[in-house]
Here is the input.
Amino acid sequence: MPCKTPIRPSNLLRSAPDPLQAREALRLLRETLAGQAGSAQAAAQEAEWLLAHALGWPRSRLWSHGETVLTPQERSRLAQLAERRLAGEPVAYVLGETGFHDLTLTVTPDTLIPRPETEQLVEIALQLAIPTPWVADLGAGSGAIALALAAARPDWQVHAVDRSAAALAVAETNARRLGLIERVCFIEGDWCAPLVPGRFGLIVANPPYLADTDPHLAMLHHEPRGALVAGPTGLEDLARIIDTAREILMPAGWLVLEHGWDQGPNVRQLLETMGYQAVSGHKDFAGHDRIAIGQRRADPKEAA
Ligand SMILES: C[S@@+](CC[C@H](N)C(=O)[O-])C[C@H]1O[C@@H](n2cnc3c(N)ncnc32)[C@H](O)[C@@H]1O
Here is the structure.
């Protein structure tokens, strides 16, 4: 009769056949992760990531070298990674990296794990005709948006701002590894405060936008609270950025913001009230209203 009690992965790997081949380790891992990963497909993908990471292999090698026997050190490394994942740690933190746009980024518990919906923000920003190639990413975290923009537009001068020195250190590490360190400038500070007024053609931001009572916070406790929570309503940081970005943008410069799925009407209203023109909302790849854009008028006081 199959055992219904969840098996700790370390036990599972300890009681696994010895010698243990890579393809058998993959099968055991896939079964073990099925409950944690959310779907069989996600479990299969995570099992490949974890095993490849434990062995120091590219994923493709798992298939071409499936008969390779794991050493005791590799078995123990794999058990430790699987333990962390089964304890609920996000797979990106367990691996220490994640994919974003066309980049692989180092992530640590000091940085938010970049989300797929933010890739849509990057796509929208890349389509805008901006009046000058000075660009700022406010709340850069791991550098996801800033580095994706810099990689796609070699002529843009990208400024990555964050108030977290620890997050900026990770973003700089990513920039160096991706060969983008000469093209992105990293600045510690509070939103627009450290930036030169009237100079930027594009400002992008994916700021904290959860209210401090949001029930989803319980599920997100591995990520830094300062990257997630804006205040009592969730709109506090978005409102501050919309207000202060007017001074930093040059005329006809664009502001592109990610927001919560139900915040679109409020964010667009804030943009209009604060005098932006060409305000519009955009959906992410999953069809949720997640991105708002607006353009600075020739004279920001015109419609304020
Ligand atoms: C939701 S995370 C986004 C990180 C990254 N842009 C991404 O999409 O993965 C928000 C980021 O804003 C930063 N942040 C929060 N308050 C800030 C402030 N007042 N000034 C600058 N950065 C801030 C946090 O440290 C965090 O890195």
Q: What stands out?
A: The pocket of S-adenosylmethionine is lined by residues 112, 114, 118, 139-142, 144-145, 161-164, 167, 190-191, 206-208, 226-227 (CB under 6 Å). The longest helix spans residues 22-37.
